[in-house]
Amino acid sequence: MDKPEYCVVALSGGKDSTAMLLGMLERRMQIDGILFCDTGLEFPAMYAHLEKLEKDTGRSPA
After folding, report:
1. SS3 35
2. What are the b/e assignments for 35-50, b being 16+ CB within 10 Å?
3. Where are the domains of the chain?
4. How far is CA 52 from the centre of its chain?
């Protein structure tokens, strides 16, 4: 029996993972979850970027 696919995007918040997420959304690819691992040492600009990304895409990292 085949297992259902579950697609999780690892989002660091940098340019590459942000571009990957946006490209996947543009292509309407399956995204079941977005994972951001907060170290507690992020710069304030990172949190601002993640908030803007969430607002612009309607998707939020877990």
Report:
1. strand
2. ebeeeeeeeeebeeeb
3. 8-57
4. 12
Whether this prediction's pTM lies above 0.85 is answered by: yes
Strands 8-10 vs 33-35: parallel, antiparallel or unpaired: parallel
CA–CA distances in Å: residue 18 to residues 3, 31, 57: 28, 14, 11
Residue linked to tokens 């959304």: 25
Residue 1 is predicted with a pLDDT of: 72
- Pull the structure tokens for residue 36: 């951001």
Q: What is the pLDDT of residues 4-59, one digit of tens each?
A: 899 999 999 999 999 999 999 999 999 999 999 999 999 999 999 999 999 999 99
